[in-house]
Write the structure tokens for this entry.
Amino acid sequence: MNGDGADLPGSLKKDARIDSWIAIESDGTVTVKTGKVEIGQGIRTAVAMIAAEELDVSLDRIRITSGITGDVVDEGVTSGSGSMEESGRALHQVAAEARALLLQKAALRLGVEAGDLLVEDGTIRSPATNQQLTYWELQGGTPIEGEATGAVKPKDPSLHTLVGKAIPELDAVAKVTGAPAFVHDLGLDGMLHARVVRPPSYGAVLKSADAAAARALDGVIEVVQSGSFLGLIAETEWAAVKARDALAESAAWEESAQLPDEETLGAWLIENESAAHPVIDGTPQDEDPPEISLPAGAAKTVEAVYTKPYHMHASLAPSAAVAQWDDGRLTIWGPTQGPYPLRRALSGSLGLDEDAITIIHAQGAGCYGHNGADDVCLDAALLAQAVPGRPVRLQWTRADEHMWEPYSPAMAVMTNASLDDGGNIIDWNMDLWSTTHQGRPRPTTETHSSLLADWHREPRRARPEARPNFSNESGAHRNAWSYYDLPAQRVVNHFVGATPLRTSSFRGLGNFANIFGIESFMDELAEAAGADALEFRLRHLKDERGRAVLEAAAEAIGWPPGPAGTGTGKGIAFNRYKNGKAYAAVAMEVEVNAETGVIGVVRAVVAGDAGQVVSRDGLACQLEGGVLQAISWTLKERVRFGPQRIESVDWETYPILTFPDAPPVEAILINRPGEPYLGSGEGSQGPGGAALANAVAHACGTRLREIPFTPERVRAMLAAAEREK
């Protein structure tokens, strides 16, 4: 093996020891270990299928250990659609190597050649001698010694019997029947219940609170106050809820936040002080950007500006965690997406050695990105320290979640392109404006912390300073560099340092706004060229895999669409996520009620190519769920706020897509056995929003460029179009 692991796939570069990934147990089961965690993307099912396939054991024998510090490889944060490429590829290889070692061991014991042995459900058999051994007899209960070398070739895809099949998620039954499946369901002996009282706005300072009255309430064990951090612990959850409400009622705050005008966010971004960095092939450069100049041969030049508001994760259940402080050691069960990064942050926040902290991942209620999952772990830890030896379960309120989770930043995208006499793009310009997309836990210092409670308790720590992101295909500039084949492309990322609202990683980062802009603009350019929207895209796209998903989605939706402006419309959009991960094309059919302004999505199709498919159900769910989330973002979602406070505090003030609103979504999977896994979890949101925008424009004969497409905005758009006739 290369000494630095450079030749090994995925996270094997971090740890190539086989027993770090796979253990053969004496009870006839196989433990598969992954540092990636389950957040609804189906990673537990996918890695179980990979291991079962390569080891030749039944899927029923696989047990998954994930996200436990000290027990699994540190695979960082589960994000960026990287789980299959990092953990999936690692387990694909290491399971093949474990099988090879087991066969070598069996061959020595049976006195035959390893190449002559067969394996069925963990039983190794010699056809020549009819002797057999099981994995559990050979290895059960003892570590598999050795490291992956990369020399063992995994099973040929033509021999797969499990990978590529439709397998239900391992815990699907528990989740749909209400059995314990989430951190909220966790019950430990002697467990207490806790709540926190959050400030009413950013920057608010606690002046007073009647902690004594709260302590006197039935069932209350302790009230913890440090600076503006306020929490309590009670014997029962109901007692904690009542005491929290009473404590909140008694609290007096001094508020100071001054937030921008929500109605002019796009202008606020563009006019604010910013640092402009040109983006080349997905990577920002630390240099001055070029100016826009009209190219020779330009027959038409088109310009447009597209904007999106702040969005929230809005997890269906608020963040929760359980913590236990015992003899100088802290154990936390929480829904963090990065157990090891969180442990490093908590170490600095609490003044503990990292080895004194154990993080055990427990599933939350769904979040692709950075919501309150890490913050609630620090909350629980701080309150658990007040009652040593007893586990403390802490759950946020709905208002806590809506007001204090990190949001997706508002963004503005300005496009400019020229066409030649043949209707071909000869010049492409895109400028984007956004605040930071980085806010996940990082090591806490004496002065700065990424964790919410540290901003309020003593000693107070400030939020880390927002800085431009120069990583490839990251932050606001993700997918800003167009994947189309363009002769000249100029992309500029304008980083706005001001952060009036708390923002951080959100599903797809800048992908959603950028693809909304790019793919809406492609339709506008096609119209200027007098071309069909699909043909125009294919004309500017050479990648056959990209063309294949576009053509599959178009065929399924019934392309070409009819005449524009009839109230019904079809739209299509495409992206390759991060310009190197999964391909996805979305086609949508809508109906627009001109009187009410209500947009109804009739149906949607998503065609995806994520390389070799492992779990068909899992991949389909990712693509379909991404489309539904994109519809919700585009039609309904917007964080509302006034000059001082966040006003989106519940489901009425932050509406999301409801079941009656949700259309049927058809997923078309293009499987490519033997090809590398391509991350898919964030592949369909961008084209989902853009396909919807394009369908609405086709239905109405005029276009909305500002998300969300509320009925009020639809009516105003139609009225303006009528006045221009």
